[in-house]
Amino acid sequence: MKILYAIQGTGNGHISRAREIVPLLQRHGELDLLVSGTEAEVSLSQPLKYKFHGFSFVFGTSGGVDNWATFKLMNLPQLWRDIRSLPLKQYDLIINDFEPVSAWACRLQKIPAVSLSHQCSFISPKTPRYEKRSWKEWLFKYYSPTPHNVGFHFERYDDFIHTPVIRSEIRSLQTSNEGHYTVYLPAYDDKLLSGLLNKAKKVEWQVFSKRQKVAYEKGNVRIFPVNNQAFNKSLASCEGLLTGGGFEGPAEALFLQKKVMMIPMKGQYEQQCNALAAARLGVPVVSEIDDQFIFHLNNWIGHDKKVLVDFPDETAQIIDDLVERYAKRR
Asked: Does residue 137 contact residue 119 with C-beta atoms inside 8 Å?
């Protein structure tokens, strides 16, 4: 059996989840990997068959997407050429993690694919929404459309939605509490964050930055380049995680029974929806960094409340079921 696994390369969550799923897919046949996008700091250990520019959004420095940088990075003619040139008829199964090139190539070639992603959970009207009937829903429907969906979210909102994929390397971590707080807020400038965090209660902050190549300290704030192993070590030994409105990072922290506070990116509809779903579990959410931010941050530091979740290890069974249901039989 030949399988194509196409992965979104904007942000680190998709690649991180793929690190767990790739070995499971390799059990079922010959696997080719495709990545499109430009904003991930982590990578796969396996070689890529296809690497495309894709359609990425660039993180800004004040809490949102950098629209001008995104526009400059955009290359729609190349995206269209890649969609038209991608050969797909050789595959018995095409799996898509919110990746537009392969999804639209499948549509053009009339080849079915199955989404295996967090984003496809929003196909269900039962999944929590930040705004009802928002025009922003078009991103979920048309960015990487597929006829079949296997989704992940904080809760099982529908029959095709599963709880998060927690990587084996996270499940096997020995946790402790050394008192520091881990921070991953890629849409904020490091200097802004360090200035604010130095004003909070005197705890140690370990900030992981997309923009830094060398670690440095400022007061009680330590800034590190993004590194998977270093981040996991920090997360395993922290008191809590301060992060954006992504999905994989908060899910892993909740699994490790760490406190979590989320600050969804401004104007990023998916992150706002994720934050709403997390808030319903009991996770504190701050809509933006404003004059009240330090007050909310100190309250969070001062409380020991943790959200208890049940994220069983079902990934292998999900992959087995997906292959059995959707793969072509020659």
From this structure: no
282-311 in b/e burial notation, b at 16+ Cβ within 10 A?
Answer: ebbbbbebeeebeebbeebbeeeebbebeb
Q: pLDDT tens digit string along 280-299?
A: 999 999 988 888 899 999 99
Nearest 5°: the CA angle 265, 291, 273 is 25
Q: Which residues of the chain have pLDDT under 70?
A: 38-43, 55-74, 133, 329-330
pTM: 0.90
pLDDT digits (tens, 9 = 90+) for 26-84: 999 999 999 998 655 556 888 899 999 876 665 656 665 556 555 556 678 888 899 99
Tokens of 118: 């967090």
What does the pLDDT read at residue 67? 60
- Cα gap 181→288, rounded to integer Å: 19
As a 3-state breakdown, the chain gives helix, strand, coil percent values, each rounded to 5, of 35, 20, 45
- The length of the chain in residues reads 330
For CA atoms 36, 121, 265, 66, give the dihedral sign: positive
Spatial strand order of the sheet with 93-97 comes to 50-52, 30-36, 2-8, 93-97, 114-117, 148-152, 161-162
Residue in the block written with tokens 């809590």: 240
